[in-house]
Design a protein that fits this description.
translocase, alpha+beta, membrane, three-stranded antiparallel β-sheet, NADH_Q_OxRdtase_suD, 367 residues, NiFe-Hase_large
Length: 367
């Protein structure tokens, strides 16, 4: 006998432990099955892009820390690259290497948090997360000893970085890099073949390759769908063309593939860091740049491969000390646009596994 059912609507969020910030989902359900999804944004909107147009270029660097606050170093780098394009600045070699070191450490820290919270989302409460935070804490300590901050670093400047590495930095980094292969193997054994993880993630929330490309998805969400695209390889910036590393991809674009790509990217970041430390030259860490800059009128777009995907800054200069337009291409926002297609047909219990596998930070979604 076929039961007659009626659709009903529930709200998830905006305050919910698994929404990774203030984010609301309006779900239409048939029993436990999701038949429609309406994502509702804007709870964290701060008018950041408009605020940036009223501040000088240098004062906008701390604003970038507050986009994806798990990726502050990389946010700094992308914005500084955009302004350096306008000013036609050449960044000293040592500063370029330091930027790569900070960016790859930040990628590892972000992926460790992403995997840890994803495991929380599928029910493995706290234990895997604490494993991930064990190594993430060591990375945060490296940032702390370099610039005195543990979250919003405000470290990079137009033309380089605000200060050189302290003497204790490289010994501590080398110790971390020596241990990382063993830690990654530990994560792999703990998670990758776990029976519950496989049931909750394999074949769940598939993002087809064509849809991922058409939606301009980026980062592990795109590469999990078997699209080998990474700006560090495909549009090399800074000095990434000097390093050997691989671009991991998934097979079918399911929740498991997105997890597996992030884990492998931690391994590849370790490879890059070892090469960068070996090649790190002596020399200046800042080009000669005025503290109050007035770039000539023009516009530029600079993008980097952030932990969540392509992070870009579009900046329009009008010859004054403030940008005329300041716009951010935020990967978390772009990746969220495919959430509906990934959720339709799945049950409520799968919602947080699929949503968690996207790995968003609402600070850069709402801005």
């Amino acid at each position: 006998m076929v039961l007659k059912t009626e659709h009903y609507v529930i709200n998830v969020g905006p305050q919910h432990p698994s929404t990774h910030g203030v984010f609301r989902l309006r779900l239409t359900l048939d029993g436990e099955v999701i038949v429609d999804v309406e994502p509702i944004f804007g709870y964290l909107h701060r008018g950041m892009e408009k605020i940036a147009e009223g501040r000088n270029y240098t004062k906008n660097i701390p604003l970038t820390d507050r986009l994806d606050y798990l990726s502050s170093m990389i946010n700094n780098q992308a914005y500084c690259m955009a302004v350096e394009n306008l000013l036609n600045i050449t960044v000293p070699e040592r500063a370029q290497y330091i930027r790569v070191i900070m960016a790859e450490l930040q990628r590892m820290a972000s992926h460790l948090a992403g995997i840890g919270f994803f495991m929380n989302d599928i029910g493995a409460f706290s234990t895997p997360l604490l494993y991930m935070f064990r190594e993430r804490e060591k990375i945060v300590e490296l940032f702390d000893m370099t610039c005195g901050q543990r979250l919003n670093y405000n470290y990079m400047r137009f033309g380089g970085v605000s200060m050189d590495l302290p003497d204790e930095f490289l010994p501590a980094l080398n110790k971390l890099l020596a241990g990382m292969p063993g830690f990654i193997e530990e994560y792999d054994k703990l998670i990758s073949t776990n029976e519950i993880v496989l049931v909750r993630a394999k074949g769940v929330g598939i993002l087809p390759k064509e849809l991922a490309i058409n939606a301009s998805a980026a980062g592990p969400v795109l590469r999990g769908s078997d699209v080998k695209w990474d700006l560090r390889k495909n549009q090399p910036y800074s000095i990434y063309d000097r390093f050997e590393f691989d671009i991991p991809t998934g097979e079918i674009g399911d929740t498991y593939d997105r997890y597996a790509v992030r884990l492998e990217e931690i391994r590849q970041s370790t490879r890059i860091l070892k090469q960068a430390v070996k090649q790190l030259p002596a020399g200046e860490t800042m080009a000669k740049v005025s503290k109050l800059i007035r770039p000539p009128a023009g516009e530029t777009y600079a993008a980097v491969e952030g932990p969540k995907g392509e992070l870009g800054f579009f900046v329009v200069a009008d010859g004054t000390e403030n940008p005329y337009r300041w716009h951010v291409r935020a990967p978390s926002l772009i990746n969220l646009t495919v959430l509906k297609e990934m959720l339709l047909g799945w049950k409520v219990a799968d919602l947080m596994a699929i949503f968690g596998s996207i790995d968003i930070v609402m600070g850069e979604v709402d801005r």
